[in-house]
Amino acid sequence: MDFKNIIRIIGLLFVMFSITMVIPGLVSLFYQDKTERSFIHTFLVTLLVGLILWVPNKNRNRELSQKEGFLVVSLFWVVLGSLGSLPFIFLDQPNISVTDAFFESFSGLTTTGATNLIQLNDLPKSILFYRQMLQWLGGMGIIVLAIAIFPLFGISGGFQLYKAEISGPIKENKIHPRASKTAKTLWSIYILLTIICTILLWIAGMDFFDAISHSFSIISLGGFSTHDENIGYFKNIWINDIVLFFLLVSSCNFNLHFLVLSGKSLKIYWNDLEFKTFIFFQVLLVVVVLIVSLYHSSGNKSILTIIHQSFFQVISSSTTAGFSIDNIETLPLFLQMLLLFSTFIGGCSGSVGGGLKVIRILLLFFQVSTELKRLVHPNAIYTIKINYNNHRILSEKNIDTIWGFFSSYVLIFISSLLLLISTGVDEFSAFSSIVATLNNFGPALGDFSENFINMNFAGKWILIFTMLFGRLEIFTLLILFTPIFWKK
User: Fold this and answer.
1) Which of 87, 247, 275, 329 could form a disulfide with 38 if both were Cys (CB 3.0 to 4.6 A apart)?
2) What's the pLDDT band for 285 if we cut at 50, 70, 90?
3) Is the pLDDT of residue 127 over 90?
4) Per DSSP, what are the bridge partners of residue 392?
């Protein structure tokens, strides 16, 4: 591997990230909350690290190999999460430990939404904005943004980074033949949705600061809020409905949005099997279960309140956003577990959501169905074809990869769970915490239903790594631990 070329690209990515510190710094100056020094220091440190890595190797321009692409993405996310913790560390008040700063940074960038900060209403506006901005940058991915502008610096090999960064099992399907143009299109849609969401939230009753801050975490499916009560703080049904709509939009494959915005019919959504499965089985079916259960267990609530609460809880969980209008622990335990398990599936591939992704579950289901047919007719030849991303694909070539991904997911889940239990966390709280972080969902159950401030030191570091595994979809990070990866 060409390590000088890898260092050059990572350095340039850090220079790009340092520039983003200007925005929360300006927010601090506007609100005069006296935290601008934290962002100035972070800007200088990140810029210095980036220049040290980039300048000596800036003329080292070679095409990235697939292995180098995986290494760049993994290293960048690990170091970026570390540098992203600096504004929290440099703060005078509140005094945040290094571990808590790392936890908050990685939780934001991976769009997990788990927090160990309390009394958000009293925190400086710039810090609240910075948390939201981290989620927004991590949602579509700062690497995807970098791919869009790489040609300006004469950097090639963007497709290898694109494949390592983008979600879903089928990564060869691009909007455009060139990775840089695909990245520009994805970020253009992402920014457009953010602007529309901000305007609608502002019209619905949020002040402008809350509107833009929440649009960052809504479009990225992050779940962070600027208030301890989360979306429930506003007590506004119009705001709730706007949040739900954009959560569904962001959990859809962004390639489908591009096709619709390009002038094609809205039938594009209806013709996509993954999207239909997500809406009917991942959302509507679970909503019906919640409505029926709550109707029989909540005698003092009106049916309209139950319906609204059910839709919000289900969509927030199914999309792995983790927003709330009420504490999930007020629900019967069966419903709490149902919502938690819905995060395993998550949203559609090519979206900004977490979880296994609907397309993987669909392909595994069809494969199991095919194997059962073969038991009855062993000599028959079966093929699996589904309509995905406006293409008819033969999914058999992806089945082995998906089974490998699923096996790796189970391995990481069990290993993380056992490690977390070994630190002294009770089994139920540990299970829900691993689900919440590995699926990039955020809220857990048990001792950590509101925040992770009481999680022990070792437990927080375990959860940081599960967040990373979830955001990078296991393989991108796990491949670095295989001996064959480092062989020539």
Assistant:
1) 87
2) very high
3) yes
4) 387
Segments in 176-300 forming alpha helices (H): 179-204, 208-219, 237-250, 254-261, 267-271, 273-277, 285-297
- pLDDT number for residue 160: 61
Q: Which residues lie below 8 Å from residue 75, measured CB to CB, with a gap of 6+? A: 6, 10
Percent of the chain clearing pLDDT 70 (strictly above)? 90
Alpha-carbon dihedral of residues 131, 136, 137, 139, nearest 10 degrees?
120
- Contacts (Cβ under 8 Å, ≥6 apart) of 209: 125, 129, 226
Residue pair 71/10 in contact (Cβ under 8 Å)? The answer is: no
SS3 75: helix
- Per-residue confidence (pLDDT) for residue 369, from 0 to 100: 87
24/199 Cα distance (integer angstroms): 20
Please tell me the distance from the alpha carbon of residue 115 to that of residue 400, in angstroms, as a whole number: 36
Question: Above 80 in pLDDT, residue 386?
Answer: no
Query: b/e per residue, 115-140, with b = 16+ CB within 10 A?
Result: bbbeebeebbbbbbbbbbbbbbbbbb
Q: Is the pLDDT of residue 157 over 70?
A: no
Contacts of 476 (CB under 8 A, 6+ apart): 70, 73, 74, 164, 165
Contacts of 119 (CB under 8 A, 6+ apart): 228
What's the pLDDT tens digit per position in 108-124?
Answer: 999 999 999 988 989 99
- Average pLDDT score, the chain: 87
Q: DSSP letters of 384-397?
A: -EEEETTEEEETHH
| Tokens matching residue 58 | 């800036």
At residue 178, what are phi and psi to the nearest 5 degrees? -90, 135
What are the beta bridge partners of residue 394?
385
Q: Are 57 and 14 in contact (CB under 8 A)?
A: no
Nearest to 249 by CA among 290, 171, 190, 208: 190
Whole-number CA gyration radius for the chain: 22
Q: What's the confidence (pLDDT) of residue 3?
A: 80
Q: How far is CA 424 from CA 107, 410, 417, 464, in A?
A: 22, 22, 11, 17
| pLDDT tens-digit map of 28-84 | 999 999 899 999 999 999 999 999 988 888 777 777 777 877 888 888 889 889 999
Q: Which amino acid belongs to residue 323?
A: F
The CA distances from residue 434 to 81, 427, 441, 445, in Å, are 19, 11, 10, 10
User: What's phi and psi for 396, nearest 5 deg?
Assistant: -60, -30
**Token representation of residue 323:** 């927003």
Nearest partner of 437 among 421, 452, 453, judged by Cα: 452
User: Contact at 8 Å (CB) between 120 and 132?
Assistant: no
